[in-house]
Specification:
Layout lengths: L1 H10 L4 H50 L6 H17 L2 H18 L4 H9 L11 H25 L4 H17 L4 H5 L1
Length: about 190
């Protein structure tokens, strides 16, 4: 019976051994193609999960920021500029008052003067109900700046493709936001 199959296969121009080896080779190629197809979907899936993780980390901070109000340093630093705004409603005089206060800070305190300028002039003086905008500007600016920085470094210097560089960048940003020592002082 076996010989009849071999003769029949030879008559058809096929060798049973070739057919077996070809079948193994084809199944090997199919499994490799399947593996490549699965890998093709893995990176976008990981990227999507990283975007979701960043949203889970950042969105609650934006929601909480709506309950934020002037207090502590911001209230103290902005009191003179707020007084000038209530008396004159002049943006130029508020900016001059804030510049004078930041110059005084330069002489007496070594710190972050740009945030002092922002807390004195923009947030809470012109619209006290919009104090949460500071979190949107600060945290949103941080996320955007870090995303651009890491993506450019990974793409230009290390040669990563766009999806891999964005995934790594978003992961690092998530960790930086989560591992902030005192989020109240950092984001609110």
């Amino acid at each position: 019976m076996r010989r009849e199959r071999e003769y029949a296969a030879d008559d058809m121009g096929e060798n049973p051994d070739e057919r077996i080896s070809t079948g193994i080779r084809e199944s090997g190629e199919n499994s490799r193609a399947l593996r490549l197809r699965q890998e093709k979907y893995q990176l976008p899936l990981i990227f999507g999960m990283t975007v979701l993780a960043l949203l889970v980390v950042v969105v609650p901070l934006f929601v909480i920021s709506h309950y934020n109000f002037l207090s502590a340093d911001d209230l103290w630093h902005g009191s003179e500029a707020a007084r000038v705004w209530r008396e004159t409603h002049s943006v130029a005089q508020v900016a001059a008052t804030a510049a004078g206060y930041v110059a005084k800070l330069w002489q007496t305190w070594q710190g972050v003067y740009a945030s002092g300028w922002l807390s004195i002039t923009l947030i809470g003086i012109f619209a006290e109900d919009a104090y949460y905008v500071g979190t949107y500007l600060g945290l949103g600016g941080f996320v955007l700046a870090e995303l651009i920085l890491f993506t450019v470094i990974l793409r230009k210097l290390l040669g990563a493709d766009i999806l891999r560089s964005l995934t790594a960048s978003l992961g690092v940003i998530c960790l930086q936001v989560l591992l902030t020592d005192v989020p109240v002082e950092a984001f609110f």
